[in-house]
Amino acid sequence: MKKSVSIILILFIVSINIFLGYKIFTNSSKVQILQNFRNMYKEVTNVIKSRSESKIALLSKNNVMEFNSKVSFESDSNLEEDELSDLLKDFNLEIKGQTDYKNNKLMFDLLSSIDKEELVNFSMFMDNETIYLFYEELYDKYIGFEDIISFEEMKSEKSIEDTEYLLNKIVELFAKSLKNEYFTSDKQEITIDSKRVSTTKNTMILNGKRLQEILVYISSNLRKDEKSIEIIKDLYNFETKEQTIEFMTVENDESLEYDETEEIKYSIYTKGLLKEVVRYEIEVVDSKITIDLYEKENLKISEINFYNYETLSLNIKIKTNNEKIIVEMTTYDIEETKIILEISNEETEVKKDEEYNQKTTIKATFNVDNEEISYQMTIDTNYKVIAEFETIEEDMLVLETELSEEDSIGIIDFLYAFADKFYINVDDDYGDDYDYDYEETDYDFGYDY
Question: For 335, how many CA atoms within 13 A lie in the half-sphere containing its CB?
């Protein structure tokens, strides 16, 4: 009977240990930090995946979609003169267009005005690897530019899978490169949200030499993995495998010269039996960053503090729940300045699997010298499934390389005049003396006639 009880007890303890991810019995500082790296990696990939798995994103992948976004601004200011508030209240922006995900097409019109007076209106059409721009005052056709970016590259599935694979590979190689001597552990009592907390501090200490050894190890092993090479080749648009491998090689990189006396310390502070992480800390020479994690008023809070020579210079609080993100930033360098950024996003189903509304609100509040100013931008977007993508007639499309010399000169002259009209400093060398008549200037605009 005692033997059966003992076996059951052992099995129970082992099961609990496996279920908790070895949190109870893994006291090794190295194991704790590596597990933490893996958890952060999973969180990053989950965030990336979640963006492509929203109802609107999934609907767009399988249908031709029409969208219409309207941007509006509001402001609240106690200042006697606030030119930005006056400008924003009269500013209107609308973007409307269509997407055909399966056939790699996108088009939209951007319409903007101030006080009902037209500002800049233009259209864009993307046909996989060619981007066409149309501006009525510039040219009477859509002008196409090739090899800038393709619609296929913008699709997220392969990109997400590749990013996940590469990150996972780097994390695992990083873990294998670390030696036990890099790690320390001790008990510390710290303050989190004005409360004293007993913690275990696990620290990884790296210097220039150790970082160089780690980078060389990761680089040499990545170069043995064909899939990693292919991903990096596509990511940086290298033409050959040899170019990619050369880029990945760091052994002879002079920029990796190191100073063994300068250390980087990365620490995590955990509490309780389940080793809950309550603080991250990075120390480099005389600078330190701490990130405290806690919950308050139904919000998850990450409080980031930046120290320089032990003096607090910047505090950032990131507060999140399922409905919104609030970022509060306070600087202490010269005088105390507080900035609050609040972002909320809401999706509403209008007609199942056919139409959705999305509302995104971004509000920024500034408090300087006891003067509070706030600006709010609201983006209201309607997404709707439509039968087919609107086509643009072929005779309305022309590649930039097919333009006549006269048209090219006219477009360049117009762009300089347009920039001057909106007070854009094109080039200090020209200034007010620039002559928009091409034939009276020796400037080479880069066209091969």
Answer: 4
What are the residue ranges of helices labelled H in 239-312? 241-248
Instruction: State the average pLDDT over residues 378-386.
Output: 95
What pLDDT is recorded for position 255?
59
Lowest-pLDDT range, 61-65, 112-116, 248-252, 442-446?
Answer: 442-446
Look up tokens 């040219």; give the residue: 139
Is residue 439's pLDDT more than 50?
no
Could you tell me if 381 and 97 are in contact, meaning their C-beta atoms sit under 8 angstroms apart? no
User: Degrees (nearest 5) of the Cα angle 289, 293, 295?
Assistant: 150
pTM above 0.85, yes or no: no
**Residue 341 to residue 327: CA distance in whole angstroms:** 5
**Cβ pair 109, 121 in contact under 8 A:** yes
SS (H, E, C) 390-448: CCCCHHHEEEHHHCCHHHHHHHHHHHHHHHHHCCCCCCCCCHHHCCCCHHHCCCCCCCC
Q: How far apart are CA 155 and CA 125, in angstroms?
A: 16
Which contacts (CB < 8 Å, 24+ apart) does range 392-395 have?
392/107, 392/125, 392/132, 392/142, 395/141
Give the highest mean pLDDT range of 53-62, 79-88, 273-282, 361-370: 273-282
Is residue 342 within 8 Å of 325, Cβ to Cβ? yes
Q: What distance in Å separates the CA atoms of residue 73 and residue 75, rounded to the nearest whole number? A: 7
Torsion angle of C-alpha atoms 248, 254, 259, 260, degrees rounded to 10? 50
The end-to-end CA distance of the chain, in Å, is 96
Instruction: Measure the CA–CA gap between 421 and 120, rounded to whole angstroms.
Output: 12
| Structure-token pair, residue 275 | 């080793």
Domain boundaries, the chain: 415-449
